[in-house]
Write a structure and sequence with these properties.
Blueprint: H1 3-24, H2 28-48, H3 52-76, H4 90-93
Helix pairs in contact: 1-2, 2-3
Length: 94
């Protein structure tokens, strides 16, 4: 197997883990950083697939701008999700 294919699979795995962590974390600031990490790994994958224009757009808008907007909104509200009502896991909420 080609070395680049192995790196792509590793990036896909890390991207999936970041997405799961972004959904499950109670700390909303950490979840926003996880969401930005998913976009960052997607932009790296786009770059490896030789689509630099899509990679730059994903990095600028997906990781940087959206992440900054979420972090700004979280700083203006409560950082942690309330524990009052215990909700089921992400696989049941769908």
């Amino acid at each position: 197997m080609n070395c680049l294919v192995c790196i792509e699979y590793i990036l896909i795995g890390v991207m999936i883990l970041s997405a799961i962590f972004a959904v499950e974390w109670r700390d909303l600031l950490a979840a926003a950083v996880g969401m930005a990490a998913v976009s960052l790994f997607a932009s790296i994958l786009y770059l490896m697939l030789q689509a630099p224009d899509v990679a730059m757009t994903e990095a600028a808008i997906g990781a940087a701008l959206s992440g900054a907007v979420f972090i700004f909104a979280i700083k203006r509200t409560q950082r942690f999700e309330s524990e009052e009502e215990e909700r089921p896991g992400w696989w049941i909420r769908w």
